[in-house]
Every structure is written in C-alpha cells, then in structure tokens.
Design a protein that fits this description.
This is Tetratricopeptide repeat protein. With 95 residues, the chain is mainly α. It has one domain: Serine Threonine Protein Phosphatase 5, Tetratricopeptide repeat, CATH 1.25.40. The protein is 80% helix and 0% strand. It is elongated. The N and C termini lie far apart (58 Å). The model has no long low-confidence stretch (mean pLDDT 88).
C-alpha cells in the first residue's frame, strides 16, 4: 500500500473516532478549559451545553457577542424548541 493510502486511512479513523466522541470532547473542552469556540465546533447533540456556552459569553463570565451568538445558534439548531436560545438570539440581534 502506498504511503498516502496509509495516511488517508489513519486520518479517516481519527476523524471517525473524533466524530463518535465529539460531544464528550466538547464537554471536556468547555468544562475543564473554557474553550468555547472548540466546544461549539465539537458539540453535535447537547443543546444544553451550547446554551450554557452562549450564556457564559453573553451575560456570564465573559462578554463576547460572536461566541454567544454561535452558542445560542448551535443550541437552537440542535433543539429548535429551546425558547431561551431564541430569546437570547433576539436580544443579541436587537441589542
């Protein structure tokens, strides 16, 4: 097998592992390191985590409207029934 085939195979399996444990990595990135942007990127199914990140950057420990918007958008994309996410996005857009 050519060396680039091996590299592609390794990258594929790494991506597969990362995809399967993405939410766990998002929780670790957020809870232990406060890496909001990385946690939002890795989070695929935890709307509560995304909403917590949005809240932290909107009216919690830090103030960054771009990260707050990303967090709330991710929460609403995962679960459109989260009214708090819609409300906070409206506050960001109208503020």
């Amino acid at each position: 097998m050519k060396s680039w085939h091996a590299i592609v195979a390794v990258l594929f399996f790494c991506a597969l592992i990362l995809y399967s444990v993405g939410t766990t990595l998002a929780e670790i990135a957020w809870e232990h390191h406060r890496w909001g942007q990385i946690a939002i990127m890795l989070d695929r199914k935890d709307a509560k985590l995304a909403s917590q990140i949005g809240g932290y950057y909107f009216n919690g420990g830090a103030y960054d409207l771009n990260l707050a918007e990303k967090g709330y958008k991710k929460a609403v994309a995962i679960d459109p029934k989260i009214l708090w996410g819609h409300y906070q996005l409206a506050r960001i857009y109208l503020g």
